[in-house]
Design a protein that fits this description.
The structure holds 2 protein chains of 2 kinds. By secondary structure, chain A is mainly β. Chain A is built from no helices and 10 strands. In chain A, the strands form 2 sheets. In chain A, strands 2, 4, 5, 8, 9 and 10 form a 6-stranded mixed sheet that branches. Chain B contains no helices and 11 strands. Chain B starts with a strand and ends with a strand. In chain B, the strands form 2 sheets. In chain B, strands 2, 4, 5, 6, 9, 10 and 11 form a 7-stranded mixed sheet that branches. The chains are: A mainly beta, B mainly beta.
Chain lengths: 108, 120
């Protein structure tokens, strides 16, 4: 499969926990990476591999995976976490990349 | 510090060929663990992977755009070039180049992007 599906939008109260999911057949074979994108900016990598955070990414961001679904969890969401979030992974061939449809996270 | 910077035309006409250059610094295009990807994003839409190239000159292209894309690199100049033929207004987008890790295909450093408009 070459598609990764995400919910279009989710909202979370300040300080609460939100989980964003990404579904696709290739996720049974490959881990997803997750990116945060704020308006007018390039995406930044927030989670990669099994559950790894690049330097500088707060530990309130975590990743997990089960079957064909990968998840990004923000525990204790902050106002600055309001952004679009994209997952990506290899496709089923293993040689191509595919991005998810994106999820807009609103912090209330 | 790792940086990538895209350059190219702001405006192209329909049917023309787009040539974009990504100039990298802080890492070498001969690094066996790294490559460079091109990714685009139409206004208000999702990210779309286009192509990537690795140090061994291994290349991959989006299946839907493969016939129109060519990616190449000049290691001595630290540049990766993407060409896209037969441009159409639907190709108007912000085009990003970014570093990709061969181990997990994580895209860990992104350029700021360059906006291309296709219009006559």
């Amino acid at each position: 499969s070459s598609e990764l599906t995400q919910d279009p939008a989710v909202s979370v109260a300040l300080g609460q926990t939100v989980r964003i999911t990404c579904q696709g057949g290739s996720l049974r074979s490959y881990y997803a990476s997750w990116y945060q994108q704020k308006p007018g900016q390039a995406p930044i990598l927030v989670i990669y591999g099994k559950n790894n955070r690049p330097s500088g990414i707060p530990d309130r961001f975590s990743g997990s995976s089960s079957g064909n679904t990968a998840s990004l969890t923000i525990t204790g969401a902050q106002a600055e976490d309001e952004a679009d979030y994209y997952c990506n992974s290899r496709d089923s061939s293993g040689y191509h990349l595919v991005f998810g449809t994106g999820t807009k996270v609103t912090v209330l | 510090q790792v940086t990538l910077k895209e350059s190219g035309p702001v405006l192209v006409k329909p049917t023309e060929t787009l040539t974009l250059t990504c100039t990298v610094s802080g890492f070498s295009l001969s690094n066996a663990r790294m490559g460079v990807s091109w990714i685009r994003q139409p206004p208000g839409k999702a990210l779309e992977w286009l192509a990537h190239i690795f140090s061994n000159d291994g290349k991959s292209y989006s299946t839907s755009l493969k016939s129109r894309l060519t990616i190449s690199k000049d290691t001595s100049k630290s540049q990766v070039v993407l060409t896209m033929t037969n441009m159409d207004p639907v190709d108007s987008a912000t085009y990003f180049c970014a570093r990709i890790r061969i181990d997990d295909y994580g895209v860990d450093v992104w350029g700021k992007g360059t906006t291309v408009t296709v219009s006559s």
